[in-house]
Design brief:
single chain, alpha/beta, eight-stranded parallel barrel, 42% helix
Length: 332
């Protein structure tokens, strides 16, 4: 049995743009949250690369990482993740090499193989749609540019070459779990939006893990959504924002992050409610005691080394309070 005291606590943020808000306010809200978590027991603060989503302000992920790192002191800041097929590995090595040079010992580089957008936007990024099969080769190319240069190496990442920037592989399937095990890299599972293969992926990763210079033993991070409030009823009310967001996803309708509602049954059909609840079945919603019990259960079920919290909460003050309650629950 693993207890909360044996695991780490971290945060994921997508700089959500709310109804009535703006991208600028979303980024300032992310900084305010990062600064709060910098003073709590959170290990790292990650941002995710997504494009052409009207409710997400962190598309230029390395720039936002630099903005947050420059205005915090202790917490690690990184990507959860950079969608590597969208980029030249050399450019990513240079960008994160620059970040590591400016903020040494505080930068993480999490990598994903999905495009993080739609097919039209992918073409606008200068990439052709693919199945992700090129991802292992791109990871190896990135590792090459971040390694100590070999004699006579003609192309180098400057800065970047020779810097010990932690690489993570992110995923919601068995593909990335297998690759992370093969490469001896830490593995982060995206249970906050795709929990179906959680246990199977972690089992495969641990069973197939090969030690590497980067990591001697398997290291698992599990990301989930969480909403905490002083009372369970308020937490459920706040969590209706998250439910509305996922309802929009299954309907194929994008919108700015909506305010909470009292009754979701007025918005969704029974079939839609079942679908959304299935997607969000690892989400944690409740007061401090309920959140602590759910977090403890998650750690015991997954034996995770680290839990990462994402929160789709409309009101910034409620979001800040939610993370404070989670931090308190973690220490109880």
């Amino acid at each position: 049995m693993k207890f909360l005291s044996e695991a780490r606590l971290s945060a994921l943020d997508l700089a959500p743009i709310t109804e009535g808000g703006s991208a600028g306010q979303a980024l300032r809200n992310s900084l305010e949250l990062a600064q709060q978590l910098d003073n709590l027991d959170f290990t790292r603060f990650w941002l995710a690369e997504h494009h052409n989503l009207i409710d997400v302000a962190c598309a230029a992920t390395p720039l936002v990482i630099g903005y947050l790192a420059a205005n915090t002191h202790r917490i690690r800041v990184g990507s959860g993740g950079i969608m590597l097929p969208n980029h030249s590995p050399l450019v990513i090595a240079e960008q994160f090499g620059t970040l590591e040079t400016l903020y040494p010992g505080r930068i993480d580089l999490g990598l994903g193989r999905a495009p993080g957008t739609d097919q039209d936007t992918l073409r606008a990024l200068g990439r052709e749609p693919g199945d992700g099969s090129e991802f292992p080769q791109l990871v190896e190319e990135l590792q090459h540019f971040l390694a100590v240069p070999s004699p006579g190496q003609s192309v180098r990442a400057i800065p970047g070459a020779g810097l010990e920037i932690p690489l993570w592989l992110l995923g919601s399937s068995l593909f990335s779990a297998h690759l992370a095990a093969q490469q001896g890299l830490p593995f982060a599972f995206a249970a906050h939006f795709a929990p179906d293969h959680l246990q199977q992926a972690l089992q495969l990763y641990r069973a197939q893990f090969t030690p590497s210079p980067a990591l001697a033993e398997p290291y698992v991070l599990v990301c989930v959504n969480a909403v905490a409030a002083p009372t369970a009823s308020e937490a459920r009310f706040l969590a209706s924002t998250e439910q509305q967001k996922f309802l929009g996803l299954i309907r194929g309708k994008r919108s700015l992050l909506p305010p909470p509602v009292e009754n979701m049954d007025e918005l969704w059909s029974p079939a839609e409610a079942h679908h959304v609840r299935r997607m969000l079945r690892e989400s944690i919603v409740g007061d401090r005691e309920q959140v602590r019990e759910a977090l403890q259960g998650l750690v015991q079920r997954t034996q995770a080394d680290e839990i990462m919290i994402n929160s789709w909460i409309f009101d910034q003050q409620a979001r800040l309070r939610s993370y404070r309650i989670i931090a308190e629950a973690w220490k109880d």
